[in-house]
Design goal:
The structure is a homodimer of 246-residue chains. In chain A, 62% of the residues lie in helices and 0% in strands. The first copy, chain A, is an all-alpha fold and 246 residues long. Chain A has one domain: Chorismate Mutase, subunit A (Orthogonal Bundle), CATH 1.10.590.10. The longest helix of chain A has 25 residues.
């Protein structure tokens, strides 16, 4: 098996991404909800129909596509009208997953803007629109990468349980696949670790107070309610569409 | 005094920025030095003369200028050919410092690329050019904001020691000003807090090892050798050029 697909290596990537996601959520939570940044009506004239966050995300992806972000099999863009990369500094890493067109970023953006932000930020408007939107862009990118890494997880699980999985794929048994990829013990470990990280990174170190920057349980809830279920959605989609070429 | 200039409030901003800087340095340190990303020869044809980091920083600033980042008195761009903001969602906050043209980003970029990155990253080339450059852009922005916040520090100190400072300004006494703004006890506290934060954020939480992601002393050294001295440079420049209009 390609070493990128070894479960220990996949877990290492996901654990490292956890830290990026948690820190970005802590950064976002220092600002209030600022609902205006998600409302196209506020800036549509200047942006051609997007909200402030949509504009910033789009422009950021346009730049990142130029330096080859989206040719990587673990990156999916939110927007489709991006330009080809110019980056000639090619470092070739073998793509260990099957070709696929799975991209659930529309779902991710919807739950991020509509549910995650209101859940982790204080309500209200503090006028910090630019900073909030910059932070949102980083959160959306990190969360998308983590969720689409489900393709690697699915391929790894497929290769280690090929007969069992292929039978369910042939039977279009989405529920069976969902059950087969679910490991409740691992999920519990992830949630506990996320809570502990959020508590550690969110503490006021060397300061006068013991106030936390974000409620650790809420960060774990973001994983439990949205990140883990959407990762599993990617895994099931990947398996159902996996070309059976072996 | 404008409440943004109260020393307690300034300290709060600097402490919060510390966390952003430290986390960004930890993110950068997961990749190797990757010297190519700082070398214009690698991509100059596509970027018009800039290195990969320069290209990404420039493009990022072009976007952020559109959403009004650089009209804020605590933000200075690295590039000058930026467009005017379109952002109509204006939230007006009074500017508590004097008009000035102080921007030491050329110094910051030079020491960041030439000294800080080689000091915090493992040597070598791991091919992670895009990720390194994205991370560099965030580091450069966060460090620049922290250092230019020296203008707020300087104005605050000026207003509380007006006669003493004005006499040194009138005498063009840069050394005297540097000595007057230096508080060795506070610097020691900052360095100790930075070390503790780097140790806390860089630990492997809930993992199998106790390996740190970055050597905490190195992060404190980044403050001691570069961030604090450059902040004081901004403070002295600000004071020397401060219009005496009171």
């Amino acid at each position: 098996m390609n070493e990128q697909l070894l479960l220990g290596n996949i877990r290492g990537v996901l654990i490292r991404l956890e830290e990026t996601i948690i820190f970005n959520l802590i950064e976002r939570a220092q600002f209030q909800h600022n609902a205006k940044v998600y409302d196209p009506a506020e800036v549509a004239e200047a942006t051609g129909g997007e909200s402030l966050v949509g504009y910033l995300l789009h422009e950021t992806e346009r730049i990142h596509s130029r330096i080859r972000r989206y040719t990587s099999p673990d990156e999916e863009p939110y927007f489709t009208d991006l330009r080809a990369p110019f980056l000639p500094l090619l470092s070739f890493v073998e793509n260990p997953i099957k070709p696929n067109d799975i991209n659930i970023n529309p779902d991710i953006r919807k739950v991020y803007e509509g549910e995650i932000v209101p859940y982790i930020c204080r309500p209200g408007d503090d006028g910090q629109y630019g900073s909030s939107a910059v932070s949102d862009t980083s959160c959306l990118q990190a969360i998308s990468k983590r969720i689409h890494y489900g393709k690697f997880v699915a391929e790894s699980k497929y290769l280690t349980h090929q007969d069992e999985f292929q039978a369910m794929i042939d039977a279009r048994d989405a529920d069976g696949l969902l059950e087969a990829i679910t490991d409740r013990a691992v999920e519990k470990t992830v949630l506990e670790r996320v809570r502990l990280k959020a508590q550690t990174y969110g503490q006021d170190i060397g300061g006068d107070t013991t106030q936390l920057k974000i409620e650790p349980k809420r960060v774990a809830d973001v994983y439990a309610r949205w990140i883990i279920p959407l990762t599993k959605k990617v895994e099931v989609q990947y398996l159902l569409r996996r070309p059976d070429d072996e």
